[in-house]
């Protein structure tokens, strides 16, 4: 089978590798470079976790992905996944139905090493936090962060080594037997659209189901870097389902803090800017929770544009009227952690029309806005 993969982000490169491993001739189309600077997969880091509230299917998928990250580390010349652990903190005592409580309960039931933290333990072990800012939560050893941009670059190199063609072109439109570039029609047996927040432009019938939502990302240079080293400052969510804020330990002198919340719609590239209001909201959070960062210089700002689905679940499904066309999109800001298992889900869909989570990731264009699939996302 001759397959075109449109988009070279984390969906695209993992799909291309898996399809090639299963004997397909694969071409990836992306305007480049990889990682593309505007792609959701880009930046220095993404969280790797299997903490999903009470959502067991995502938790199980996260466990499989964690095993995959460890295998990739063992195989790669440079480890790109850093198992610092993840810590989710709450401003109030954890309550049933909340993200922190339900994650803690499910993970403990599934045999994970999760350690409950009270206000005293947080203050004693993690001195960057203002005492009393968070009074409950847990530390989970199984998780951490991945060097996201570097991972995409490495996987793209693996694609080339495996015989995948990568063409630096923008696909203008899709046709029943292939793709159209600038004045060139290229035929393919199957097409996989992995175009992130651009997906709905290539598949216009998805315009009401997928949308581009911008989330602010900040790189800060702390005056006291020792407070933010991984053993004292693991990946964290700061009452994340309420505030949206999460962050990473020190890497290259930088602490990255970002928001995983409602965001704001983005209609064009010129709107990909962090606003003054978003920066003020960050400073307010830091003054309250992480005072040593409250006045830290911001060395880089970025609006991470999610390819959002209305319910927060991914779309990994064939087009109901065009079986040669598979959609692999709707990452909704929480797909990257699943990188080691995404390729198999996508390849299964391309080759058989089915995958292990087909009911969740199905074509659902009649969907109305629903509860987000990621329980960590602030409403």
Oligomer: single chain
Number of helices: 9
Percent range for β-strand residues: 25-35%
Structural class: alpha+beta
What is the average of the pLDDT values? 96
Poorly predicted sequence stretches spanning 5 or more consecutive residues: none
Along the chain, the helix and strand elements come as EHEEHEEHEHEEHEEEEEHEEHEEEHEEEH
Structural Rg: 20 Å
Report the span from N to C terminus: 43 Å
Describe the structure.
Helix 1 (10-21) packs parallel to helix 5 (148-162). Strands 5, 6, 7, 14, 15, 16, 17, 18 and 19 form a 9-stranded mixed beta sheet that branches. The protein has a 6-stranded mixed beta sheet with strand order 9-2-1-13-21-20. It has a 3-stranded antiparallel beta sheet with strand order 3-8-4, with helices on one face. 51% of the residues are buried. The chain has helices at residues 10-21, 56-75, 99-109, 119-125, 148-162, 199-202, 240-243, 276-289, 339-352; strands spanning 2-6, 25-29, 46-48, 81-82, 86-90, 114-118, 136-140, 144-146, 165-167, 173-175, 178-180, 185-187, 190-193, 210-220, 235-238, 245-247, 255-259, 264-265, 298-309, 315-319, 322-329. With 379 residues, the protein is α+β, with helices and mostly antiparallel strands. Strand 20 and strand 21 form a beta hairpin.
């Amino acid at each position: 089978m001759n397959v075109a993969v449109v988009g070279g982000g984390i969906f695209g490169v993992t799909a291309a590798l898996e399809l090639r491993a299963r004997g397909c001739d694969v071409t990836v189309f992306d305007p480049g470079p990889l990682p593309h600077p505007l792609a959701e997969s880009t930046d220095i880091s993404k969280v790797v976790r299997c903490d999903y509230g009470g959502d067991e299917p995502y938790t199980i998928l996260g466990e499989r992905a964690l095993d995959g990250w460890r295998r990739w580390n063992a195989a790669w010349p440079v480890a790109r996944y850093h198992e610092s652990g993840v810590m989710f903190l709450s401003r109030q005592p954890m309550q049933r139905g909340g993200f922190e409580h339900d994650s803690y309960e499910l993970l403990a039931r599934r045999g994970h090493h999760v350690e409950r933290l009270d206000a005293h333990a947080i203050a004693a072990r993690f001195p960057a936090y203002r005492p009393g800012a968070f009074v409950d939560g847990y530390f989970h050893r199984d998780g951490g962060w991945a060097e996201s941009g570097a991972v995409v670059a490495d996987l793209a190199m693996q694609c080339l080594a495996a015989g995948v063609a990568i063409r630096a072109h923008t696909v203008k439109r899709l046709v029943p037997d292939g793709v159209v570039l600038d004045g060139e029609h290229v035929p393919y047996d199957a097409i996989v659209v992995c175009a992130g927040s651009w997906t709905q432009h290539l598949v216009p019938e998805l315009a009401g189901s997928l949308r581009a939502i911008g989330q602010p990302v900040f790189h800060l240079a702390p005056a006291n870097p020792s407070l933010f080293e991984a053993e004292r400052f693991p990946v964290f969510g700061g009452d994340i389902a309420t505030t949206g804020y999460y962050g990473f330990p020190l890497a290259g002198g930088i602490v990255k803090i970002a928001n995983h919340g409602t965001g704001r719609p983005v209609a064009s590239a010129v709107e990909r800017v962090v606003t003054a209001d978003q920066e003020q909201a960050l400073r307010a959070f830091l003054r309250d929770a992480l005072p040593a960062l409250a006045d830290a210089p911001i060395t880089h700002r970025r609006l991470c544009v999610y390819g959002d689905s209305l319910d927060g679940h991914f779309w990994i499904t064939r087009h109901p009227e065009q079986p040669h066309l598979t959609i692999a999109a709707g990452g909704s800001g929480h797909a990257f952690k699943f990188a080691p298992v995404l390729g198999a889900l996508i390849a299964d869909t391309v080759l058989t029309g089915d995958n292990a989570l087909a009911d969740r990731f199905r074509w659902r264009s009649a969907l109305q806005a629903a509860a987000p699939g990621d329980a960590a996302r602030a409403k």
